[in-house]
Predict the 3D structure of the following.
Amino acid sequence: MKNNSDRPLFQPLPMSRRDMEAYGWSEIDILLVTGDAYIDHPSFGTALIGRVLVSEGYRVGVVAQPRWDTTDDICAMGRPRLFAGVTSGALDSMLAHYTAFRKLRHDDAFTPGNRHGARPNRASLVYTGLLRQAFSGLPVVLGGVEASMRRASHYDFWSDKLRRSILLDSKADLLVYGMGERAVLEIARRLSSLPAGSPDQQAVLRGIPGTVFSLTGRIKESAADLIPPPDKICTLPSHEDILASPAALMTATLTMEEVLHQGRKWMVQLSGAQEVYFTPPAAPMNEEEMDRIYALPFTRRPHPVYKERIPAADMIQFSITAHRGCAAGCTFCSITLHQGRQIQSRSRNSIVAEAASLTKHPDWKGSISDVGGPTANMWGAYCADDPSSCRRPDCLYPRRCPHFKCDEAGLVGMLQEVAALEGVRHLRVSSGVRYDMSRENNLFMRTLISDFVGGQLKVAPEHSEDRVLALMRKPSLSRFEEFLALFRRESQRAGKEQYVVPYLISAFPGCTAGDMRKLAAWLKERNWSPQQLQCFIPTPGTVATAMFYAGIDTKMRPIPVARTDRERMIQHQILMPGGGKKK
């Protein structure tokens, strides 16, 4: 039974019994447990999922960064009626804790006071265990980036081992991958339809689009009617196959990439006696659905329980999400595997209305820090063909697909309308500009450089050597140099002194110390000192991580890999001051 309040809920979701009383709730239906502090902003998955559920009448409580040596924090609001959802937060918990050289980090931007240590290693596993201890028999659902990217057998850089699906290791009932609003609403709907204490809870959750579940033995026999016929299901290399032959991880990763983009087939992976089933992804949201979600009453602030500042909250408070998804397929990036390649955009009116509402926020100071998404200039982009028949891993590489359509004039018009709103003094576009997207007139790029760059523009050429760039599925250096010429020309025309800050990667699979010295020489020619340099981290689920693990490219050809921390550090230091000198 749903319990919906008649009044607008312009307050954060409950984190305590006292908060529940403010909503008029005596119990909650769904408990969301997160490894981040609770920030009520649509950029954070817990807030987004929680708000969507509340808008549909469900009572939702949040437990953020609970202690993991006691169940007291988990139990603070009582047993939820339907289920508990678990996420490690905005990052994989191991990535949040350790540097590229496996050293412990000393800060955490998603924690009050920027302090490290508020969440455990492998947070999804630990939180699921706490919930099992606290609430016997309660369905537990994994979600977020950590679960999404570890949904199949994957290489774990921090233990240097192949790990099986996180669903199996956690013993959760279900895993939601990707952007989970539709799946989570369906989970809530199905569980609401069951009588309390029903033994059919696990069975009723199977088959929801965008989810992963496991079957074994007699349970598999009872679910035979649910599983599609063989021609509708794709079999991935088993966990044991990958252990025996690391190249099988590349096969599995590329298969998942293609099948997920096409969006039709189920997948299955055997792990011991268990079969892990991946349903097709949930259908992309349309414009009306996107508008409705981002119009929900977010406070855009951390929960009032926090007394110290949270860096991540400050950074994104007045940013606007214009769209989801990324049509590129960079091999090191998890965005496409998490959000999908089909761009899901909000309407122009919705974005402008949100911007206007920001000017009335009590914390407003006049600046919108960003309007965009994973890639800033993909708002409104779409595929003019049928994605379900597409076999390309990337809409932009090696050259832009003719079916990938963008409305640069519409994007520029939207940004200009937002910038012209009363009370908006500055508007910046800072999220992942793809300099290789523009074609004939470069309308977006010219407008961006003249109007929406705040002195510095961060872009990601990643490297200078085309052979390494090809392994990344990134455009050649010549495209970046064309962009630099355009940037200088348009900055001068606008009478502005502006700079490009390039993101660079060291020790990428296939990259050698010689390649890094060439990159260092290219930077030296331009009198650039690297400010944004990252040593490659093999994060679970990506194509580049399969390259690192197996030592091959996507064509199964051997490539050199800087595998040890020492080898990786040698490459990294070449770009540091004085590091390019031969010793």
